Amino acid sequence: MREQGWDLGWLRIVQSFLTGRRVRTRLEGKSTEFTDVLCGTPQGSPLSPVLYSLYLLELLNKDRNLRFGYADDLTFYRVGKTLDKTSEALAADMRLVMERSTENKVFFCPREMRGNTLHKETRALQPGYSSKQRAHSHTNNGGPGHGGAHGKSEEAATCDTVARHVV
Predict the structure, then answer these.
(1) Which of 52, 91, 102, 159 has the fewest CB atoms in 10 Å of its CB?
(2) Over the stretch 106-125, which tens digit does the pLDDT of each residue have?
(3) Judging by beta carbons within 10 Å of its beta carbon (0-12, 13-18, 19+), is residue 5 exposed, middle or buried?
(4) For 129-139, what is the mean pLDDT?
(5) To which H or E segment does residue 134 belong?
(6) How many CA atoms lie within 13 A of 141 on its CB side?
(7) Cβ 74 vs Cβ 68: under 8 Å
């Protein structure tokens, strides 16, 4: 927030809000010892989603035309001449997000990642997989389009899969 130009007074308020917190668990009349909370924002506070959005602001502002965010959802949008080129661009976006999240201790759950691909590209389809199915949404549920290297190297196949599942 300091890099975003926030006033020192507001930074102190936020620091006070996020530090010095303790929790304990109580179950059936018994309680654990208090434990310091060293990360995260207090659940249920109206300020918490605002702080999370500010935390992600730098990532979202890298390319406003291609990244969109609301609450804890991020969307990437890419257009390319071929599915492979578009997939490579999306995979690069995803690598950047994962690097940034590692640096800043933000966790994105891979099971929650979804993607859509819309394209006119023609190439050999997987057996039992029609072009009509191919034009629909791909998700990471292990269904059609969930891997298929299409004759690419293992690395390229990984990028293709990531791009399909993370948009």
Answers:
(1) 102
(2) 776 667 666 666 666 545 44
(3) exposed
(4) 38
(5) helix 131-134
(6) 6
(7) yes
